[in-house]
User: Which sequence fits this backbone?
């Protein structure tokens, strides 16, 4: 794990193998998996989950209880009925561009890009790319 | 923080600066922020997040994984690109009246009032006031 | 609590009174309540909540931040205004059949059966039975 300067991390967090930039705040009950890159001046609020494959550029706001995903067809086991391993699974990346804001309770499907300064409404389920500066909401999320 | 009599708090919680009434139960992985008021005989289930600006009257049920919000346009940084401080942000209040029940997985936008004994269905996204005694569900939540 | 062989449990979990099969993985910030049965080779991802009344057969995938429920009309207090006890409440069961996959951020209403190998899309709110092999998504979740 690589931590920038002036990073504030609350209690009960699970971070591993990620890169966190400068001046980042990370709330309680947050998990950030290996390979994640978090840019400078991001704020990641409590109860959120940021999985492998996610990149947050600078100044991104992640609300509370936000869930990212990285697998289109997740399964517990492979076709032989054994627990899946890294070999059975492909990580699909997601990019959140600078200044974007992901509202609390949002779920993001993988393989998408959230444009610069876009705003995702609370409780949205985001299934496709969001243009820069757009505001989206709903399930599936649409421009409002 | 001010705790009433006979409050039961589970492990792994993050409470600070809030007022909790008598006979309240608070589950695991709950965060309650400063300024929150929780009335007597409320039940707050695991994984829920209650932010600054929220008031729960008496006998309110908060399901599991419920998310409140208090900022209509959250951002990580201010217009100068610096991390936001308290000065850059206005807390929008939410009121849940006595006997109301917020179903698990619900997300509540801010600035709204949930009426007495109203019931919010599991997984709802509540975007506006809910009348007393009403049952709502969906995203956005509508009366059912 | 009864744990099978080769169970991997991460930090910050709250398990009690449940039965966990062999080769099960349980992520961070998970709560599993009493009476839950988890079959062999299930994977339960971080931030998920599995309540009393839920049975997972073999090889079930539970994504991150998944919420089960077991009470159709939850309330904090009974008709006399006192905190509810076990006597005021009926647990409604939910069954997830072998090989099913529950996407991250999904909420499941109670009293339903998720069929074998069914797939629940991320962020769905599942309100009724899902047939074997079906894929559902949305709020309420519908076959896609």
Assistant:
């Amino acid at each position: 794990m690589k931590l920038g300067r002036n990073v504030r991390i609350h209690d009960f967090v699970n971070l591993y193998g990620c890169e966190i930039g400068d001046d980042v705040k990370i709330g309680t009950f947050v998990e950030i998996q290996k390979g994640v890159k978090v840019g400078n001046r991001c704020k990641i609020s409590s109860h959120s989950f940021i999985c492998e494959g996610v990149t947050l550029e600078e100044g991104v706001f992640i609300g509370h209880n936000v869930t990212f995903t990285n697998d289109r067809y997740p399964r517990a086991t492979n076709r032989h009925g054994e627990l899946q391993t890294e070999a059975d699974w492909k990580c699909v990346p997601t990019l959140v561009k600078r200044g974007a804001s992901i509202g609390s309770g949002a779920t993001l499907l993988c393989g998408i890009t959230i444009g610069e300064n876009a705003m995702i409404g609370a409780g949205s389920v985001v299934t496709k790319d969001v243009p820069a500066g757009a505001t989206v909401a709903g399930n599936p999320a649409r421009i409002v």
Q: What stands out?
A: Chain C has one domain: 1-71+90-144.
